[in-house]
Design brief:
The structure holds 2 protein chains of 2 kinds.
Chain A (H helix, E strand, L loop, with lengths): L5 H9 L4 E4 L5 E2 L15 E4 L4 E9 L12 E7 L4 E7 L11 E8 L6 E7 L1
Parallel strand pairs in A: 6-8
Antiparallel strand pairs in A: 1-2, 1-3, 4-5, 4-7, 5-6, 7-8
Chain B lengths: L3 E8 L10 H16 L8 E5 L3 H4 L5 H8 L6 E4 L5 H15 L4 E8 L6 H9 L14 H16 L3 H15 L13 H6 L2 E4 L1 E2 L9 E9 H6 L6 E10 L14 H14 L8 E3 L5 H10 L30 H5 L6 H14 L13 E8 L4 E9 L2
Parallel strand pairs in B: 2-3, 2-4, 9-10
Antiparallel strand pairs in B: 1-7, 1-8, 4-7, 5-6, 8-11, 10-11
Classes of the chains: A mainly beta, B alpha/beta.
């Protein structure tokens, strides 16, 4: 399946050229989008994703869906990258060692069950 | 604008009934509601039906006309879907239809068949309430999403898993006498804390069960109730709905639920009531943290102050404002597309005085129901009042 907008965004992260969408008011969001979800502005431009974010919250998932059977247990986190947050699977440490405030970088990994691309938050 | 009364309610037993089809569940609840109302089927002008995952669990789309057939109705039928708030929105739209004068009698409710699926498949189906590209693909499950909110709450406002365990203990206690509840088993704080982790910090006993069940409500105009001499002492006097960004990461604060605040503000204003007027509440406690987010969003507690309410005894059956006397989603069960209707049915019974827990709220006149979809990207609040 092709998901225009999203696939391109993930490829850019994989190439080390990650971006997000920024409206004229400075609100961040993720593609594909035509309208800022915070203020309704339609003036959306690409802005560079900061190299490092910090874990704002996380969970250690012991019971996932069928697409994550080979991953359990795994940590899913929401990380703050300034104007935008990303949700991803944490890698580079044991799930039980993840803490709030940890620095992470956005990468693309492989879902160990499905083989699909996956947004990874790698511990720096 | 006419007032709207609850003329009859119907529920199936909530629980694990993997062999029962959705159509059988809803037919059961709808006939019970019809029978209680005493209204002949040809007088029912519309069916508003809530369902979330029937296309996955039973591979059955276009469920509403099927369910009208099962209820013995020949009327227009529409399915409403807002994840776990599906029946809440179905009922809200029925209230608006009756108020507008478009119809005098509407049947509303919902159904969900879930336990015919494996745990992994039900986990996958429930997760579809989240953002497919950005959350589901990152491994977010339904318990996982609330775990993210729970940890954010702990980080910002404090509190701990033991505070939340008291919510689970309370709701299991409340379910004990409820004949429709999935669980009739008291639990202890230690059992909640020692239960296996599902998605840390949410353990198995912090989570609602997977449930099959259906709910149905017959709503009528004041004029119809009077003309037909109906025994319908409970009215829906306020209705409100709020929305939010679908993905958690797009919200300003992960530990609050503004959709609930918006729905509550609208419903209170509609009813001419404030949070202080409310005697009892049924809230959407799919996880113990969800009850805390709800009682704060509904204005009963300041943000960050609700977490110890159950531990302090303020929300127990004998507390100043009981929360989830039915047992809530946590112990009564959570057939997702039926839950919003179940809450209205339980509140109606509590206010009428024919619920096994009505004795705890003998003098109550104002009740509130709160039904949430996903991580509260949708919220529906209703105010119910009883003639005394």
């Amino acid at each position: 399946m092709t998901d225009a907008g999203y696939d391109e965004w993930l490829d850019a992260i994989d190439d080390g050229e990650g971006y997000y969408l920024e409206c004229s008011e400075g609100h961040g969001s993720l593609p594909p989008r035509r309208v800022c979800p915070h203020c309704g502005s339609t003036a959306l431009d690409r802005a560079s994703l900061p190299a490092t974010g910090t874990v704002e919250t996380f969970t250690i998932c012991y019971v996932g869906g069928p697409d994550f059977e080979a991953e359990e247990p795994y940590a899913t986190a929401i990380a703050d990258f300034g104007d935008v947050r990303l949700t991803g699977v944490v890698r580079g440490t044991d799930p039980e060692d993840v803490t709030v405030g940890m620095p992470v970088e956005a990468r693309v990994g492989t879902n160990r069950t499905t083989g699909d691309d996956l947004l990874v938050l790698r511990i720096r | 604008m006419t007032g709207v009364r609850v003329a009859g309610v119907g529920l199936t037993q909530f629980g694990r009934h993997p062999e029962r089809t959705g159509r059988d569940l809803f037919g059961d609840a709808a006939l019970a509601a019809r029978e209680e109302s005493g209204i002949p089927p040809e007088e029912i002008e519309a069916l508003n039906y809530g369902n979330f995952m029937g296309t996955l669990a039973e591979r059955q789309g276009h469920q509403a006309p099927l369910m009208a057939e099962m209820a013995g109705l020949q009327c227009p039928a529409t399915r409403y879907e807002d994840a776990c708030a599906s029946a809440g929105v179905a009922i809200r739209e029925a209230v608006r239809t009756v108020r507008s004068g478009e119809a005098d009698v509407v049947l509303a409710g919902g159904c969900e068949r879930m336990t015919n699926l494996s745990t992994a498949d039900v986990t996958e189906a429930l997760a579809t309430a989240a953002d497919e590209l950005y959350e589901i693909r990152a491994g977010m499950t339904f318990p996982g999403a609330y775990a993210l909110m729970e940890r954010a709450y702990f980080e910002q406002f404090g509190g701990d898993r033991e505070d939340l365990a008291h919510v689970a203990v309370k709701n299991h206690d409340n379910a004990l006498p409820n004949e429709y509840a999935q669980f009739h088993r008291a639990i202890t704080v230690d059992e909640v804390l020692d239960a296996p982790m599902v998605s840390d910090p949410i353990g198995l006993l912090d989570a609602c069960p997977v449930t099959d069940g259906a709910s149905a409500i017959v709503l009528v105009s004041d004029e119809y109730a009077e003309a037909n001499d109906l025994d319908a002492p409970v009215s829906i006097t306020g209705s409100g709905q709020g929305g939010d960004n679908l993905a958690l990461h797009d919200r300003e604060n992960l530990a609050v639920t503004p959709a609930t605040e918006r729905a509550a503000a609208e419903a209170y204003d509609d009813a001419g009531r404030t949070a202080d007027d409310v005697d009892l509440v049924e809230v959407h406690d799919c996880f113990t943290i969800a009850e805390v987010l709800a009682i704060e969003g509904l204005g009963f507690y300041d943000t960050g102050e609700g977490i110890a309410a159950a531990r302090r005894g303020e929300t127990t059956a004998t507390g100043e404002r009981p929360v989830n006397l039915s047992g809530g989603l946590k112990a009564k069960g959570h057939p997702v597309g039926a839950t919003g209707g179940s809450q209205i049915a339980e509140m109606t019974r509590l206010l009428r005085g024919d619920h096994p827990n009505s004795d705890h709220v003998e003098d109550a006149t104002v009740g509130v129901t709160h039904n949430a979809g996903g991580t509260v990207a949708s919220a529906v609040v209703h105010v119910l009042e009883v003639d005394r």
